[in-house]
Predict the 3D structure of the following.
Amino acid sequence: MATPEQKRILVTEIPGPKSVKLHEQRGAAFAAGFGVSLPIFVAEAGGGIVVDVDGNHLIDLASGIAVTSVGASHPEVVAAVQAQAERFTHTCFMVTEYESAVDVATALNRLTPGDHEKRTGLFSTGAEAVENAIKIARSYTGRSAVVVLSHAYHGRTLLTMTMTAKNVPYKEGFGPYAPEIYRVPSPYPFRWVGDPDNVAQEAFDQLVDVITSQIGAHNVAAIVVEPVQGEGGFVVPPDGYLPKVAAFAKEHGIVFVADEIQSGLGRTGTMFAVDHEGVVPDIVTTAKALAGGMPLSAVTGRAEIMDAVAPGGLGGTYAGNPVACAAAKAALEVIERDDLPAKARRIEQLAKPRLEALTGEDSWVGDVRGRGAMLAMEFVRPGTTEPAPEAAKKVAAYANAHGVLTLTCGTYGNVIRLLPPLVIGEDLLADALDVLEAAVATLA
Ligand SMILES: *Cc1c(COP(=O)(O)O)cnc(C)c1O
């Protein structure tokens, strides 16, 4: 099947009649606890376009939440999946081995920051990668405490849900939560209550204070940070924060974990978001963009830390599935060969000035931020920092109705995030930005 025509085409209302009917059927079959950003049913997708069952072509500013960086049907990923599925779909890497898993591990050891000796473990989901990073850090250090940030998102399993900051919808009703998780303030410049020119230092001082006065540094196994916070609202830590935290962790024998599940593999304009400041984490978690849409995640870290767990201590039936590994080899090759980090920088160059032009004294757009193709607008009541989730919802609804698939995020639900596939065409991106500008104009 060819990549769909790379053009926004609306032939019905959004959602169209076929999607509406299917969505009704869904309600009778599928658990209600799964939300949906836009209830259209997809027929095909690729490049920067999603085609629904009614024949509408929508511009994709979501990438299935930062997954399909190479597009949702990249021909090399498709061919790799087909070829592997014909050979075998599964053996379980803990039962008998296959080369592609070793190849993916080798590639991640090379691509992640730092030239020290590394090891990688493969899993299936992002949450599983974070869980395993904690298991490994605890095993290596013999300590139990885990430090995370406000506005953090690390997944939906018991441990990672506990590490996630936001209550509704991620935690409400699901307690009791896992023990030994401690939270420190995120260096969130737009909402910082202290000195706006000293956010990195003040946030770092608070981290040190919480760790030394409430936990004891010698009890901390890991500090886990998203180098650009994802679900929390695309919060970019100010320069200096991550290097300070990494140095503090090192000084106290704490494992510094960068959760690069959303920000990694080219999305922010460098291979990893920590590369913007030359920070070398002890452990990096990846998932989302890793396998071109197939479920695969990884924990990559210093060999002595990773190998602290004895054989049998890590694994999973589907961990490092061979079809997913074949897809990852193809996706990683595309990301490197076609220099998708450069594409992400180009997207920032094209989109950020246009978004920034929407801010101003009497604008509902209070802040524009992000790196590379991980960009966001935060909506507030004009002239204040009071969150305006209704404005974000209105803009997203307008964009969706006009054929641009957008996602909201943020602790206060007032952020619209742009996560286009890194392969999106420049005309398509410009068209999507026209629609977003028109959407913001409706707020005036
Ligand atoms: C999405 C995400 C996760 C969880 O990944 P799943 O595959 O949904 O389990 C963890 N951390 C970050 C930063 C994420 O964006």
Observations:
- The domain at 17-60+339-441 is CATH 3.90.1150.10 (Aspartate Aminotransferase, domain 1).
- The chain has two domains: 17-60+339-441, 77-337.
